[in-house]
């Protein structure tokens, strides 16, 4: 202590220093306590809204503030998003406050602003103005120049916000900003999983993309969001949120300009774009933009990428749904409506309140099966495609063209007034199809049998109309190829009978309705029997005797002919074995007809030989008849070769009635030709006798030159037998000797007979 400084002055100075130190320690303790409280809040696992509410409450207590709020600048208004001290219904949450000078300065400098006592009225807005505010502080939530959110404290206590206070508030605001961004990121990631389900619920592309635009806006906190698809070298705006009409009018744009998108990015300093990746490449683009120079939160691009993956999966699902829907309603070969779509469309038309009527044309191609068998299924498909194209050009714009199945097509005619219109349209379709088409390099004649009906709305049903049109079509087909017939009751009854027979044929054998009749094949000179032909017969309990030309096609359509054919062969072989035990039956042959369906079955030769041998017969005892109209394919040639090598005699039936017979003689080991009865019946008839004689003479010459045996079918008169003998034909069958008979009666016809000519040398 110096003499110049009085003792009491030095003591006073020490007291002041001690008081200042105590105050500083108290302030430091208070600041530390406040900071610990605030940091503790930031570390709690609370949501954003809860965190903001708790933080504002603690700040109000810690800094003796009457009002503490968070607010964001939107245009020229300051919108409050959370507060402590303002009523819940305060207009500051909805209408906001005017932006005062303190707010503008804080945003411009990104530094805190504090005012004491002389706080301008514009900086104490709304309901805060009545609280007698003496001190206020504005703290930017982020130090970045794009900051638009502030932490604001108002207090009536006549004590300024000191520099340490502002420093602490700045630190708290920054930490709060980071905590909110982290929570927002977690919330968005949680939302992503939910949004994936929201997208997956859409199976139509337009609502899917519209939902995606809305979700994208929420995920990115953007001001505008839009979705672009790339189609045909152009970018199309498919959905958006926030784009102005002027911007929308600039679309579409060239795909190569999508990286720039100047029209959409006008006024949007911050734009993010993410491609939607799919298996076939990126076909869509997600875009999000912000109007102010405020970058997106960290990780937004990653979030958009995840969302784009969700959208890609949803788009793939939508495409799959459409593909399945298309498959469910479209014929996969022709692209026409299928049976399901046809029935649905017809049902809709018949339910409509309209004074006009609805017509249906049922079209069945003539000879399609022959083309399919001759050239193969690929040729058949090609023919169907060409027919579908022809029919597209024949129907009216409002008509529906559908493929009903196989070679059947149906045309639904809307707004028809009378049945004659149905007949006229059917005739036009028939004429358009009556032409030659090139299939697999070969010209094919195409025609169609068409049946038509007219239905009254509110009375007719799709099933009844299709049934009746089908019935009319069969009437047309019975009249010949390329005919048109409109509905009548008789045709409907015949159609129903046919459907009944088709269903009952599957059970006919197990019910004992099928049996065999045997017609002898005899020597024309001695009338001695050399073989029998086994003929299948069906006696129905209600319909009586069903002709073979009716039920055999039905058996082939259903596939039942395979099982029935095996049964016929087994029955015939067993009967022949019984006759072989008789002295007069030794050396007798048995002829059995084969369907083309049987010929095309796998391992047909092995199964056939197994049946023959199981009956105790030699393969040479059996004659298998192959009709000329079978249009045999390559695998049948192998089948026939295997049978011929085993000793089975192959017979070509109905020789001379189709154009392909000579090629069969070259390809197959044929030994016997059957001359069709249409030629035999004319050899002695008036007018055309000379022509038929010439045809029979030519057939016999072919057989003789190739070392084949000829059998004349349908011999009914003695004159026909004499004429055929004079031409050199040695064998025949027909009503002259016997009609087809049951086995017991046929056996009575047996008597001594000459041997069958020696097995002919097979032509290669």
UniProtKB/TrEMBL annotation:
Xref: SUPFAM superfamilies: EAL domain-like, GAF domain-like, Nucleotide cyclase
EAL domain: residues covered: 498-754
Residue span(s) of domain GGDEF: 356-489
PROSITE patterns: EAL, GGDEF
Gene3D superfamilies recorded: 3.30.450.40, 3.30.70.270, EAL domain
MF terms in GO: cyclic-guanylate-specific phosphodiesterase activity
SMART domains: EAL, GGDEF
Pfam families on file: EAL (PF00563), GGDEF (PF00990)
Signal peptide: none
PANTHER family: CYCLIC DI-GMP PHOSPHODIESTERASE PDEF, SIGNALING PROTEIN YKOW
Protein name listed in UniProt: Diguanylate cyclase (GGDEF)-like protein
Organism of provenance: Catellatospora coxensis
